[in-house]
Predict the structure of Cytochrome P450.
Amino acid sequence: MIDPAGGCPHALNARLRAEHGAVAQVVLPGGVPGAVVLGHDALKEFLAHPEVAKDARHFTALHDGSIPRDWPLRAFANAQGMHTADEDDHRRLRALVGRAFTARQVERLRPRVEELTAELLDDLDRAAAASPDGVADLREHFALPLPMSVICELLGVNPEHRGRLHHLSNKVLVATDTTPAEAMAAVRELVELMGTIAATRRAEPGEDLTSALIAAREDDGDRLSEAELIGSMRLMLVAGHETTLNLISNAVRALCTHRDQLSLVLEAKATWSDVVDETLRWDGPVSWFPFRYPTRDLTVGGTVVPQGTPVLAGYTAAGRDEDFHGPDADRFDITRPTAARSLSFGHGAHYCVGAPLARLEATTALERLFTRFPDLDLAGPEAELPHQRSFIGNSVEALPVRLHRR
């Protein structure tokens, strides 16, 4: 049985791989049978398999009455957008969204990312200086507002909505220990808020992605339904800040507890891109991501996964798979040659469209943070940091640090 409260996934991943191999049968919250793919090679094959779907119409138990209507994870299955679409529908939606995330478009965002990073480092410094013990929460003052500001500016979301959007997106798509009533209420409020944002952009279109998606829908009404519009906005908002928030936080934790690795990059013996790659592999921002469904009984990693089974992609497990990354896969090593081949951004047709933006934000944030505060350290033992209450998101709830200004 999967613990809805989640926690650090690595010990559980290691135990499941030792007991079951590349694929394990699991019981999802609510007693729903499922599976998780844990091995790197098996996951890579599964993510790109032509007989694996994302559309929940292939999730048999979701429609035959065996799963209650208030099942908390139903929000993941029923969401509409490119992340739950297949084939032509997926290509159509991805083509509309992908224009904003090309390498050229992302590079145009670099000056704004650098400007925001500098402003937020000032905020972090002020927060630490104002604290009686010189401690500031790096997640609150730096790792969260950077990607949240960037994705909201990209989507044309007014600043007054941003705090509530983070709370709701975390409640709906990260926290997995919520009650059914809490989950359903958060889904309804998030959809309503997205509708309000879309209505604002419809009335006052601008040079933002939401306005562009609305224009595409109105120019050719069958290209983007209202549900697809709201679903696409929700996906970009959540994926555009929650994962990068965790990536930056996990990288800072790793570097603070592996000072030898931090020295390598500060001495230009490795790059900040190497840090991001190894963090994605060693302690990725997403642990087990729902859902994919075999469209027939499928053998994956030597295990038969029945048709219609909801399958989780075990990204953190694959990242420490010794068969692929070597016998020292549990060690954080920014010179590791296989790190750049991790699957944390996915693989195949559903590879994360926002990966270039996440990399830009993370490398910029880490370089500027440790250049300004090279002696920055955790304010307490890393093992005592509270972990996210989720088996989907993988990070800590707070990251108190001391800047140790020189």
